[in-house]
């Protein structure tokens, strides 16, 4: 095969590894452009300009940090040119009919055109001192959603779109219930001349009743909204209890159930698309590089190494040798189709190459370091009881931090604890090889050492300043010691059932970034709309201000209002940052009704509550539920991939889950003899062992995909690219002709 075939095969394998489904051209020039398009520097630059474009709202009128219009407009034009260049690059590598049928590309082009048009109109009107609205700012989040790099955010939006029909029916039923209860409340309480605590009419206006009961669904005005009726008659409490049960508990739970059910259904469809797409791309790569060997087609060892070096250039030679020994486990000099299809999974498993090094003291003073007292001391440090002892010391230290800091005994105790922590670090450095102890992946060792030396520096500085200048920085020391107490997390992590929760929290971090992007899009849109609608309606004045209407937040209409009396004047839409803070408060839904100072704002805030709280937050909760279920089932069954099992069978692996951080180097030192007994002499000749990264660092999407792939036979090549893209949630699992023949 030619070098162009090798480059094309590398593109297919890379797409399979990172779950990309871009239908690119296969000409040599297009493939080279496609590799450049997917380069991490290109993706990083794209995200940088996307967030720069979004952050311009901080510097444009109304601005948090005002910049001249010329400066912001030049930056915006620069961002738009980068987006246009990125889109042009994408058009060069994809098929023309696919590019022009893709809605996201059309959206980007329209957004660029609208932004340039609006910028030009705004600039011209500004020259004539005519105030206008920058209406195109609302389309800026489109760039975050629609570029190819943001497929996770698009998947979240697809989940929302697919869930909307079912949510709509539930929401209509919920609104019917709300309107019915509001009508009953109007008839029950409206004619009894009741008043609120502020002296306002109680439940006299039907629309006001609807809004107050909608707020009650969020429990933000409970029990205040009930008290006038409850004071009149205790029996009226039954009405509000019934309302809360039906609308808050039943309907809100029903929203979550509907969202979760639809989310799970469409997530499975997305995952199986990815699984089949990955299988298809690996088959395409194999067909490009295959050679005939007897009655089967294979890929030669030399060509396989070239391919892996192209796909994963940062992989070490020893790592590649390990991957080859797994793919060609019988040392035949080639990789068959069945093993090659698993290459993408093999590359996705983080395998850390560890060099076995002797401790420097073992080389410099071997007699002393190898003596019986030295071995006893090192065995004590390696023992689990040593860790437990220092965890207990940390707990006692935490208690001392909470005690009276003015007591001299507490001050002396801090020196004692500091000395104990320094001794701990010195003992560990004496026991474990320093370069491995302070390795890149040894987070807790770095954390402990930095905290201890920060505490030592702060303590000495505090003592010096206190003796010379009577200055005490004990608060700084408290912060340092509180950080030290965070080591207790390791105790939680050592308990199996707690570890399930910890693993789930770690696994959802990448997806939290996705939902963070989704939230950023919603916040940006509502913040820009809010600034255009409510800018200048509310002003903030310092407490000692003598400005007119300072007590009414600069708006006479707010006199004696809950908003003014609650001193919520900083909750305004006068700039981008303040808008974000208000929207965050509305997401929490605590006291959110007090922020609504004008009647038209109620529709705006209700719309935000429906989009953000009822839909997006419920989808996020659905993901957490699914993540916990997957992690819990894997933890119970100890599921391992076939690749991990092969590594263990070869005796080359040091499984991180079976090792404590403090025991890792000790196991490495004795690994040579163990691996020789298990037939692992080949890597040991180079002084290497391999550590499989912990399962906790795999994303939930990867775990779900792995579970679905287990249902696909290895000989099944899957459907074509077009059939994969057209799969629907109700479609049966497709079978390719080759799999049917094999069956």
From TrEMBL:
Keywords: Membrane, Transmembrane, Transmembrane helix
Name the record gives this protein: Ion transport domain-containing protein
Highest taxon listed in the record's lineage: Eukaryota
Membrane topology: Multi-pass membrane protein
Pfam family, one: Ion_trans
Subcellular location: Membrane
Keyword Transmembrane in annotation: yes
Residue span of region Disordered: 722-743
One annotated Gene Ontology cellular component of this protein: membrane
Domain Ion transport: 45-265, 384-633
Molecular function (Gene Ontology), one example: monoatomic ion channel activity
Parts of the chain that traverse the membrane: 40-59, 65-85, 106-125, 167-186, 235-263, 385-403, 409-431, 443-463, 504-529, 603-629
Organism taxonomic ancestry: Eukaryota, Metazoa, Chordata, Craniata, Vertebrata
């Amino acid at each position: 095969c030619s070098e162009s075939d090798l480059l094309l095969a590398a593109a297919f394998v890379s797409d399979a590894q990172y779950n990309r489904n871009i239908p690119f051209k296969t000409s040599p020039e297009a493939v080279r452009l496609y590799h450049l398009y997917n380069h991490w520097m290109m993706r990083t630059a794209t995200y940088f300009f996307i967030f720069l474009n979004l952050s311009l709202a901080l510097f444009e009128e109304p601005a948090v940090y005002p910049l001249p219009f010329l400066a912001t407009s030049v930056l915006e034009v620069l961002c738009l040119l980068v987006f246009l260049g990125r889109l042009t690059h994408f058009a060069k590598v994809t098929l023309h009919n696919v590019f022009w049928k893709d809605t996201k590309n059309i959206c980007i082009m329209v957004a660029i055109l609208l932004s340039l048009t609006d910028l030009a109109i705004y600039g011209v009107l500004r020259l004539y001192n005519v105030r206008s609205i920058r209406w195109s700012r609302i389309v800026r989040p489109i760039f975050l959603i629609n570029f190819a790099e943001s497929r996770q955010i698009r998947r979240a939006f697809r989940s929302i779109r697919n869930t909307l029909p079912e949510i709509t029916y539930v929401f209509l039923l919920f609104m019917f219930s709300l309107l019915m209860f509001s009508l009953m409340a109007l008839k029950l309480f409206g004619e009894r001349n009741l008043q609120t605590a502020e002296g306002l009419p109680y439940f006299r206006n039907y629309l006001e009743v609807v809004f107050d009961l909608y707020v009650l669904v969020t429990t933000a005005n409970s029990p205040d909204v009930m008290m006038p009726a409850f004071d009149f008659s205790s029996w009226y409490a039954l009405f509000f209890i019934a309302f809360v049960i039906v609308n808050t508990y039943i309907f809100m739970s029903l929203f979550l159930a509907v969202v979760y059910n639809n989310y799970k259904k469409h997530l499975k469809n997305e995952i199986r698309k990815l699984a089949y797409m990955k299988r298809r791309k690996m088959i395409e790569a194999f067909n490009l590089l295959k050679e005939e060997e007897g009655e089967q087609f294979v890929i030669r060892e030399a060509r396989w190494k070239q391919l892996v070096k192209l796909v994963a250039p940062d992989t070490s030679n020893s790592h590649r040798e390990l991957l080859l020994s797994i793919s060609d486990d019988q040392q035949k000099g080639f990789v068959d189709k069945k093993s090659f299809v698993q290459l993408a999974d093999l590359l996705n498993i983080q395998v850390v190459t560890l060099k076995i090094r002797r401790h420097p003291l073992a080389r410099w003073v071997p007699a002393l370091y190898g003596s019986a007292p030295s071995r006893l001391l090192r065995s004590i440090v390696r023992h689990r009881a040593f860790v437990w002892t220092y965890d207990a010391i940390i707990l006692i230290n935490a208690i001392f931090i909470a005690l009276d800091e003015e007591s001299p005994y507490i001050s002396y105790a801090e020196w004692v604890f500091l000395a104990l922590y320094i001794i701990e670090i010195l003992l560990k450095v004496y026991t474990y090889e320093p370069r491995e102890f302070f390795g890149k992946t040894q987070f807790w060792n770095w954390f402990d050492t930095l905290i201890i030396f920060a505490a030592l520096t702060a303590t000495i500085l505090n003592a010096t300043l206190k003796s010379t200048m009577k200055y005490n920085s004990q608060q700084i020391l408290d912060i340092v010691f509180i950080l030290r107490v965070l080591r207790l997390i390791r105790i939680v992590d050592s308990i199996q059932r707690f570890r399930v929760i910890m693993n789930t929290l770690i696994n959802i971090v990448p997806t939290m970034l996705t939902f963070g992007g989704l939230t950023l899009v919603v916040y940006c849109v509502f913040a820009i709309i809010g600034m255009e609608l409510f800018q200048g309606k509310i002003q903030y004045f310092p407490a000692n201000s003598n400005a007119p209407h300072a007590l009414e937040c600069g708006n006479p209409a707010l006199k004696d209002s809950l908003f003014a009396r609650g001193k919520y004047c900083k909750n305004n839409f006068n700039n981008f940052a303040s808008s974000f803070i208000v929207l965050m408060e509305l997401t929490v839904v605590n006291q959110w009704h007090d922020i609504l100072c004008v009647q038209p704002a109620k529709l705006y805030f209700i719309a935000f509550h429906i989009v953000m709280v009822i839909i997006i937050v419920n989808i996020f909760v659905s993901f957490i539920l699914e993540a916990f279920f997957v992690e819990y089932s894997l933890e119970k069954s100890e599921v391992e991939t076939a690749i991990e099992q092969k590594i263990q069978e070869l005796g080359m692996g040091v499984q991180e889950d079976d090792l404590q951080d403090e025991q890792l180097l000790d196991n490495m030192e004795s690994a040579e003899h163990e691996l020789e007994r298990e037939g692992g002499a080949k890597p040991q000749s180079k002084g290497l062992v391999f550590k499989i990264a912990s399962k906790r660092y795999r994303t939930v999407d990867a775990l779900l995909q792995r579970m679905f792939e287990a249902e696909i036979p290895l000989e099944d090549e899957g459907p074509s690219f077009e059939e994969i893209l057209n799969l629907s949630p109700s479609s049966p699992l497709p079978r390719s002709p080759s799999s049917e023949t094999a069956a």
